[in-house]
Amino acid sequence: MTRAERESEGADGPGPLPAQLSAEIPARIPGTLPAEPQAKSRENLVHSLHDEVLARLREFIVEGNLAPGARVPERLLCERFGISRTPLREALKVLASEGLIDLLPNRGARVRRIGEGEIIELFDVMGGLEALAGRLACERITEAAYAEIERLHHEMYGHYLRRDLHGYFACNQAIHDRIVQAAENGPLSATYASFAGRLRRARYSANLDANRDRWGEAMREHEEILDALRRRAGSELSDILFRHLRNKRRAAADREAAAPVPGEPAVDSV
Amino acid sequence: MTRAERESEGADGPGPLPAQLSAEIPARIPGTLPAEPQAKSRENLVHSLHDEVLARLREFIVEGNLAPGARVPERLLCERFGISRTPLREALKVLASEGLIDLLPNRGARVRRIGEGEIIELFDVMGGLEALAGRLACERITEAAYAEIERLHHEMYGHYLRRDLHGYFACNQAIHDRIVQAAENGPLSATYASFAGRLRRARYSANLDANRDRWGEAMREHEEILDALRRRAGSELSDILFRHLRNKRRAAADREAAAPVPGEPAVDSV
DNA sequence: TCAGCTCGAAATGAATGCAAACCTGTGGGA
DNA sequence: TCCCACAGGTTTGCATTCATTTCGAGCTGA
């Protein structure tokens, strides 16, 4: 298939796919930072085929459309995306370097299986990154940006009072994202987004429904976070954020132990 | 060239190269963590050609054998490594995702030019990662590992007294690496190594010869670091390490302002 | 002299080809 | 029945080829 032929064709490939692959591939992750994993801001606005495939494949895997440990079917994905193996394989190398898949020599790519131990490690790194973001945010954040976080905080509190889990989650994630944004550090944002993706792929569950105590605790921690940020107490905020992530990790681990159902979709985030 | 032909041939390609490329490509970076950028520990012991090329090319760029902003000559590197363009281009995509190079659509790869602002950002991320490593190290470090760091610290102090810059640097780097190792967090180690490479590529200079004050200050900070680590005071150590990196960044910036000679090799690290 | 244009060489992006490695199912022997 | 060899198709890794774009030398005309 030549480039001209591909461009004149429709977006979707024609062939049917096995059930596992037939899930829709969304165009963008809604709830995360808009930052691309690496700096491609100025000149790389033209999406070369490679970038397009890379983004779509990353989403496909992060969203859990392939089971952990499952083979990544090169051929099928080529047909799915309507491309040849070359750009797809380039994307696979990049995803492997991001830790989303493993490349076994001569035996293809497999979706990385994330063990309990590694989830703990990833949580700790997220904690460190958020701690850093909080520290930097205290140095740089504008009054307006702080006010927006404060608004989100109160909105989140409202959801908490009404026991609206979904709204609570959305505000919670928005707050953490705003803090990272307020740090105004490109490499930090990119690294944060990358680790968030890896962790999200693990489908760890910190479902607050099953853990009402944790919900209240998390809400109190967020009070502390807002307070430290208001006082621009970087070092203190750094500590609180790390502890916050630690507790989140613990809640996730408890939940996992209580309901060890692998492959079951679960709600994220405290 | 077929695979059999390449394997029966010698390691070095035959052709002459322009002066800029004729520098030797070392096999490994001596002073950094042994960790590979991503988890390939168990099964990927067989180095597929791609991995080999990726590692060598990364070293080639990190070591500064290509000027910032310079074109990455695909053709020449292919001849140099004795491979075709496919695996080389795969490696370039990965390096781009690591932030070492920029890929301009239809105009090839260029060595990323790191501006002053980005160096500051990278330093801050390094500070956050070291802060995290220190915090985790306080939780996990063994007496033996602590004793080794203490030994390195005293050895470093000896170098400081004798004004032996080279020995001081080596111990300094070893201490920071040991702290990261003591954190026992694979993703953290990998991320740390990656950022260390990016920063090293910038060839920032924090030459202590030109800044004797900073040398003494750094030594005092290291006293604090050791003290906090001995007391397993994670939060405190975290703060000290971040400040330590901040001061290191400041010294580097001062030095850069005092002697703005781009392309001049300079001594790293405090 | 110099700005603008044309055309050809070279480089890039992607597709295709090909040898080697792997997986699978089949059959022979213990 | 169970274990192992092995032949076939399938997949992978890399080389090669092809289409497209960019870059630059040389020409034209003012």
Automatic annotation (TrEMBL), chains A, B:
InterPro entries: GntR_C, TF_FadR/GntR_C, Tscrpt_reg_HTH_GntR, WH-like_DNA-bd_sf, WH_DNA-bd_sf. Residues 1-21 are annotated as: Disordered. Gene3D superfamilies: GntR ligand-binding domain-like, Winged helix-like DNA-binding domain superfamily/Winged helix DNA-binding domain. SUPFAM superfamilies: GntR ligand-binding domain-like (SSF48008), Winged helix' DNA-binding domain (SSF46785). One of its GO terms (molecular function) is DNA binding. It holds the Pfam family FCD. This is DNA-binding GntR family transcriptional regulator. It comes from Methylorubrum thiocyanatum.
